[in-house]
Specification:
Number of helices: 13
Largest sheet: 11 strands, mixed
Distance between the termini: 35 Å
Structural class: alpha+beta
Helix content: 25-40%
Amino acid sequence: MRRRLRPILVLVLAPVLAGCFASGGGSGDSADTGSRLRVALAFPPAENLSPYGADSTILSRLGVTEGLTTLDANGTAAPALAASWRQEGEKTWLFTLREATFQDGSKVTPAAVAAALTHATRAAPAPAALAGVTLTAKAEGAGDVRITTGAPDPILPLRLSSPSLAVLSAKAYKEKDDVDPVGTATGPYELTKVMGATAATLDRYDDYWGGRAQAAGIDVKFVADGTARASALRTDQVDLAEAIPVAQAATLDKGTREATATTRTTSLLLNSHKGPFKDAALRAAARAAVDTSALAEDVHEGYADPGAGIYGPAVTWAAGKRTEPVGRAEPGRPDGTRVTLATYDNRPELPEVAQVLKQQLEKAGFEVTLEVREYSRLESDALAGKFDAFVLARNTLVDTGDPVSVLASDYTCDGGYNLAQLCDKDVDRAVAEAERATDTAGRQDAAMAAEARILGTDTVVPLVHQRIITGVGTSVSGALLDPYERTLVGIGTRR
């Protein structure tokens, strides 16, 4: 299934993109100020760059936003806007802030942090990091914030590392129902201009608490077409291009493609609330029809591993703790059952994955209609359960770094990102038990027990565990490529 690059398409795309990455902003490119970075991102803003949804990782990857904590290389909570913290009781934590300023010049104060977190708790829908959690944040003295949760929350420092819990200044919340990150964040780069879903301009924030960034700014273009992103990197129109399609990897010089094992799993989600896949036997039939090795070897050309579970090889502890799915139904007979399978084209492999799945399901006896759109035009329908089946690439640890959080948000009755429309009392019970676990090993064991319950419903069929290919120009150094896909540009990224 390898595809050759079509020369005519490249020639058409190159001049179109050339004007998109002309140097912007007012920082210049002198040796003193540093060059500007040109970045091609795959996903345009779906929610006007609100930090509370999928757009939050756009902001964190570009170095715009920060929370009280961050994730280190081992996936544990590390200091960010909070220099330190301690637990005062089962439900209370005290976070001590470092000296920092917002990009509008105001200080990062305990009151400002408490207000930002309070806004996040009131967002609708709630950020995935707050699924099933209630918390209250209050200023404490001149430099502390006390956070109290409704129930014991042993992973609160991890939770606060979520890009969706970024801390913004009071100016960001002036509009009642909107949050504006332009010039109101704390990161090394300030968002100065957003051109809808097509482009954005960022300038270096010179008063960043962590030091002066080496690049003068970032010129971002949102390019949904993966071939166009690869072409732009190859012709030196961009310095960084995310999510290079595997079909385009061979067209890039070896030194300009970086493959990173990630905690992202591509899955087939089956709508268990309505439609044909409300029948557990038909879900089992769909699961039995899927050949994951063909997807890993042919579609992903070796840049993926066959689906083993909700957590893949990048979650290094998972394989040794995995147990067999619990309560699976026997496969039924599709007998021409008609289903609608949907996915999005921002990740170029997904339409091809969906096409192969369509063939596999039809071979098993289903009649399949395939629907492919850009993610921003698909998300609301997917959340509303308008499709029978959905192919999703999901970073299982992106929301909090905690393995239980994705289970709560994606597979429980009240989950805010429950595309499978799953509502099963045994699953909810298993996830709740995992949420109560306090020590690391016990939490991991409970997460795997919950995974076994979820997989037993056949509402999710893990397909592949991805390695993401990032295009990095030969003149670029310091790109931040992590398995959680939260970072891309930092203070040391330059060309």
